[in-house]
Amino acid sequence: MPGRRRASPRPALNSELARAFAARFLAMPVLGCPAALRAGQAAYLPGGEGSVAGRLAPVLSSLSATIHRYDTATLATTAKLAANLLLLSQITALAESFAVGRSGGLSDDQLRELLGGSALVAPGIQNRFEDMLTGQQDGWWTTVLGAKDASLAINVARGADVELPEAEAVKQLYDKAAALRRVASGRPGRPGPPPLARAGRLPGCPVHDPAGW
Q1: Helix (H, G, I), strand (E, B), or coil: what is residue 22?
Q2: Does residue 141 fall inside a structural domain?
Q3: What angle do CA 15, 17, 19 make, to 5 degrees?
Q4: Which range of residues forms the domain containing residue 162?
Q5: What's the CATH number where 133 sits?
Q6: Residues 92 and 71 in one domain
Q7: Helices and strands in the chain: count of H runs, count of E runs
Q8: DSSP run (H or E) holding 153
Q9: Quick one: 91 and 173 in the same domain?
Q10: 171: number of CA atoms within 13 Å, CB side?
């Protein structure tokens, strides 16, 4: 596995790497926040030649009990993008739910009581609930990366002549949040904003301006 990437690569890039390093390359997208990773609760999505995956199986099994194996690097990357798009949409929906509640007069405590333990809030964003509600958090993802992953997901679907109107809207929101954060920080030319869980003019998310990016 030459190198390590924090962001989701293009499926085509993983295909190129798989061709160039056929006997050595294994795509390894990961689903889970840093805390889940440390606790061994993340999901790993290895994709590539079975011989490479077999050699790494003992390592993977020591990292997590949740391993989703794919025959190609492209499939593994597609699985990651499908999962990330769902997460991006859920975060946006939760932020707008906060906005509706606040607009109608609900306090943060009332929103917390109403939604904090609700089954309506997916487990994958429960760990972001309090951070999004208060804006006082140490995030690990950027709005730029969120917009990029939405764009990659849209391109995958477009390649099969499938339209994703909600994904298009989500991408626009993350693009706007990234641009607003750059302007608010006085550095409109910088390539990346603070982490996604901090950033904010996703509707309903307070802006929290950390010291530096």
Answers
A1: coil
A2: yes
A3: 70
A4: 78-184
A5: 1.10.1040.10
A6: no
A7: 8, 5
A8: helix 143-158
A9: yes
A10: 13
